[in-house]
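Section handout 9: paired folding examples.
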Amino acid sequence: MRLSPGSQAVLEQDCVALAEIELCGELMIAASAADEERLSSARIDEVLRVEHMPSGFSAS
């Protein structure tokens, strides 16, 4: 099946949206399982699998 350029863009947006929904779900699960009232920034980064870059490096 061949997709038009517009259809390809919609599929890519759908993939991004699904990934965002999955990450939100993981945050909700972590928050509901936490003993504390709020998740720490470090715990949020852990759930979202954020890797911190050493100082002096840029994300671009």
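Moving on to protein 2 of 2.
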Amino acid sequence: MVQGSYISFYDLRVRKVFNWLGATEMMVELMGLEECVGFGDTFLEAKKNLNESIKVWEQTYGKESFPPHLQRPQIIWIDAPMDKSEFAFINHELLALEQG
């Protein structure tokens, strides 16, 4: 399985984002497989939830669907926190998708 210590074979992107209540939380995603995302109040909680997302991905699509392991040290990208205009834009786009 690609969980636990295996997460260190991939780069991660970390960002503080707004949740549906307007508070902020941490988001951690697996680079190269952006569908695998974890959220939490802390980085450790988000990373734990990322492991759950990875588990579900592996059960659904299999180990062969993962990008190749890194042959170098892991990079953790830390993006600037999401601002309110970006949050509003994303919500607007989601509503537009929902309405067809």
